[in-house]
């Protein structure tokens, strides 16, 4: 077993806690079939979209599981059965802004498509078995760019197939066909297919056509995109734009799909991932470089976003 495959298996086993109604506990690897689920041995380059593991999973008896925050985004398609997915709520606070997000359960049934971004923690319980679904554990820096458009303010995507583009099912079938293949051309095909899938989900989630971003929102967004190394406290933004901090947060969240702090930190973590992968800067130095001087806060924020610590991310990126 090569290092890439071993690392993926280890992460999934550590991140899932399974139990059946009978009380028997299982790890992730024992919940999948070796001829239907694949742990890929070749990792896609960070600038590409890739699949670290994926395939079809079936629960023939009622099960429950909890999933810790993962360094993968998750794409799923339900084939049969019903279940209830609970997304862990977020609590975001810093300086003058504090907000909480409590998510209602997502009821999954045949034909539903689910997308969970990096670092999503959740729990799942089957409601009707057999419950069969396709699942893909996705990697690639561009996932962070797609996620806001797919998930919006809810933090995740869950839609019935009747609400989605009919070609989406064919694209997912094609992804399944490529899972056993690890050659370079297959990695390119998988990346291209994932772009089509995520673009389709983004289009499905897009609100009705609207006017351009309000001027103050566009300027804030540009500031966060290019100058994420600086703190940009709300009091300072309030003075700059002559608009109350409440309205700034409200308008930004409504227009961009994320609160200002969450969007700013998303840019910081994206930059940090690049530095961890491409430089020899220490964890403390990477934090400072992206605008988070407190190393403990940087580590906690990074783990909340990706599911693993900066050091673990650097180690897994070496393979």
Describe this structure as you would to a colleague.
The chain contains 11 helices and 12 strands. It has 319 residues and is of the alpha+beta class. It folds into 2 domains: 3-205, Jelly Rolls; 215-316, Arc Repressor Mutant, subunit A, CATH 1.10.10. Strands 1, 2, 3, 4, 5, 6, 9, 10, 11 and 12 form a 10-stranded antiparallel β-sheet that branches. β7 (90-94) and β8 form a beta hairpin. α3 packs antiparallel against α4 (184-205).
Largest sheet: 10 strands, antiparallel
What do the pLDDT scores average to? 84
The N- and C-terminal alpha carbons lie at a distance of: 13 Å
Shape: globular
Q: Secondary-structure element order, as H and E? A: HEEEEEEEEEEEHEHHHHHHHHH
> Which structural class matches the secondary elements?
alpha+beta
CATH architecture group name of the largest domain: Sandwich
Q: Helix count?
A: 11
> Stretches where pLDDT falls below 50 for ≥5 residues?
90-102
Determine the fraction of residues in helical runs and give it as a percent range: 40-55%
By DSSP, the count of extended strands is 12
- Rg, alpha carbons: 20 Å
Total domain modules? 2
Instruction: Tell me the name of the CATH homologous superfamily of the largest domain.
Output: Regulatory protein AraC
């Amino acid at each position: 077993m090569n290092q890439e495959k071993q690392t993926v298996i280890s992460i999934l086993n550590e991140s899932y806690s399974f139990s059946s109604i009978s009380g028997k506990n299982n790890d992730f690897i024992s919940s999948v079939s070796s001829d239907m689920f694949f742990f890929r041995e070749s990792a896609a380059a960070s600038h590409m979209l890739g699949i670290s593991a994926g395939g079809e999973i079936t629960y023939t008896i009622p099960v429950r599981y909890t999933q810790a925050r993962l360094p993968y985004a998750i794409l799923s398609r339900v084939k049969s059965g019903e279940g209830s997915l609970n997304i862990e709520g977020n609590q975001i606070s810093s300086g003058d802004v504090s907000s909480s997000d409590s998510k209602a359960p997502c009821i999954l049934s045949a034909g539903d498509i689910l997308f969970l971004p990096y670092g999503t923690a959740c729990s799942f319980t089957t409601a009707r078995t057999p419950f069969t679904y396709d699942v893909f554990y996705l990697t690639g820096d561009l996932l962070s760019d797609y996620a806001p458009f797919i998930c919006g303010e809810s933090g995740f995507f869950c839609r019935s197939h009747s609400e989605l583009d009919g070609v989406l099912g064919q694209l997912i079938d094609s992804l399944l066909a490529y899972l056993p293949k690890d050659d370079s051309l297959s990695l390119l095909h998988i990346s291209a297919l994932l772009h089509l899938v995520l673009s389709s989900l983004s289009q499905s989630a897009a609100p009705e056509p609207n006017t351009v971003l309000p001027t103050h929102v566009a300027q804030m967004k540009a500031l966060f995109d290019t100058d994420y190394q600086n703190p940009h406290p709300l009091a300072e933004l309030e003075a700059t734009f002559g608009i109350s901090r409440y309205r700034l947060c409200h308008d930004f969240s409504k227009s961009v799909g994320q609160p200002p702090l969450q969007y700013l930190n998303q840019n910081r973590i994206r930059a940090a991932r690049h530095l961890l992968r491409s430089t020899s800067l220490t964890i403390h130095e990477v934090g400072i470089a992206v605008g988070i001087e407190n190393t403990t806060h940087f580590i906690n924020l990074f783990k909340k976003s990706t599911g693993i610590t900066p050091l673990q991310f650097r180690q897994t990126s070496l393979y």
